[in-house]
Structures are given as C-alpha cells and as structure tokens.
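Got a spare moment? Tell me how you read both lines of this record:
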Amino acid sequence: MNRIPRCLYNAVALMLWLVTSCSGSNSQDCTRGTATAGGQHAASKLAETTAKAPKTTVNREKIVVAMSAAFVSEQGVSVYRELTDYLTRRLQRPVQLITGLAYDTINSMLEAGVVHVGFVCGLPYVLLRDQPKPAVELLAAPIMQARRYQGMPKYYSDLIVKKDSPYQKLEDLAGARFVYNEEISNSGYNLPRHHLFERGLKNRFFGALLRSGSHEESIRMVASGQAEFSFVDSLVLDYDRAMGNGSAHLVRVLLSIGPAGIPPVVGSTRAPADLRESFKKELLHMHRDPEGRRILNKALVDRFESVTDDNYNDIRTAYHTPLRAGYTEIK
C-alpha cells in the first residue's frame, strides 16, 4: 500500500487540529496540555515531527498566535489569554491563542503560515531566521522588570539543584541525573551544551539524561529528587518564584549562563506585512496604555521593544561552536 508522504500528513494534521480543536468567537483560546511528562494528547503527536510544512494560505480574518517559549511559566498562561484579549480589542480582529505544542511543531506552523505570530525561544528563532529564505522576522522582545536584566532584551539559563542538596559547583554533579526540557531549547539545552563544551565536560559527564518536555516539569523533577539538576529559563523560574507557583521555591540556582538574547516575538513571513506591522505597533505601544500596563505588570514585563537580529548572535555562537567540533548532543 502506498504511504502518505510525511510532510503532507503533517500539514493535514496541523490544519485539522486547528479547525477541530479551537472554538470561540472573539479572542479564541486553543490552549492544550503542556508538553510535559504529565499530559500531552494531541500536542505529543504533533511534536514528534520535524518535517517542513508546505505552503499554506494565510487566514486574513483571524490572527493565530502561538506561545512556545514565554516570559511567564505555564502556570501563567492566563496572562497570555489577557494579552490576546487585549490585542483583539486593539486590533479589532479575533486573536487565537495556541499553547502546549513543542518548539519544532510551532516552527513548522510558522513556516507554513498556519501561525501568524509566535512567542518563541531564541534558538528556534535563529533556526527559522537563518534559512536561505527566512521564515520569520523579528517583531519585538520583552524587557523584563527584574534588576538582573538591566533593561536589556536578555535572559539567562539557570542551573538549578534541590535547595537542600550538597552541590556547590557544576563539577560536583559528575555522574548525576540531568533533566532538560527539549533539544532545541536555548536555555534548556543549547547554552548548557556550549557551556559544557567550553569547560571540557563533554564526555559522559552525567549519569543519566532525562527529557521532561517543559521547564516547569524540569523544576518539579529536580525539587522532587527525580533528577539532581537542570538548566532552566530564568524568566520561568523568576515568574514562578514571584507568584509562589509550583516547585520553584524548592530549588536554588547554582550558576547562570548568559546573558543571551531573550525569547522574541516573531511574525511568519507568510503572514501579510500589514498584519505583522500592526501587531508589532500594538506591542510597542502597550506599556503606554493603562490596560496594557496592567497586563505587562502581571507578566513582570516593563515593555516590549524593537530588537535587531544581532541580539541573537550569542545564541548562534553557542549553537555552532560545539557542532563544528562534533559535539552534537549532551552526554
């Protein structure tokens, strides 16, 4: 029997999922269970494919926004719902929110134009931007309120251990269990791989590698003793600590890698230029509007700011340096 080409199957699956799973008339919320060990369903199947989706006609009626990497944690996804409601009112167009899909799935959807705007991790942005024909353009980046970021579009990869653990430095973790969120995460995998490479700790340093599917799940696994350490997004850890969420209060930071380019907001180059420009304009204006200011405060964000591509050169360096030396995966 003839097999359906994988790229076609993937594209059809994406489209059917969007059509059948989303409902609502104004700001539409297509939130799914986050890609953790605890719950995946449809998202887990979509996350398995890295096939490039084919060309797709952009829907000009609604704006589809995907959130994969965020300036809040999964527990703060309600902030994104408020943001999309706000943008629906400001743009006078329905804005549909999608969450809970893996980074590579969101990348495929941005390439196809199925998703118009993405709140994405810095490494997935670089991988999309550096294609021969860039699949996305930068719209804006959040500037966080916390003093450690110094008003710059930067963040960190925080190495966390259980609060009462004896570990004092990275070398103490030789033979320990390392949990990471996913392979194309900048803070969870890319920056740590580069750091290990630079420190000469690339040959069977860890006792075991575990994949969690999200920073929140990595934090929980370290706090519960299922793993000894993880590298996590500093924005996620900051947010959960500030809000008293999850297990963030049960871990401590051993070291921080960075700063590196903060997860940006990007527009699919298949989306209409006027859509991308109007979305960007509203983000950049948001901190001057009382309702926008309130939402930004809930997300611990000072403002959105225009950024240039060179803000992400630190991520490119961290990605390509170990790869050129043949160090392709953490071991």
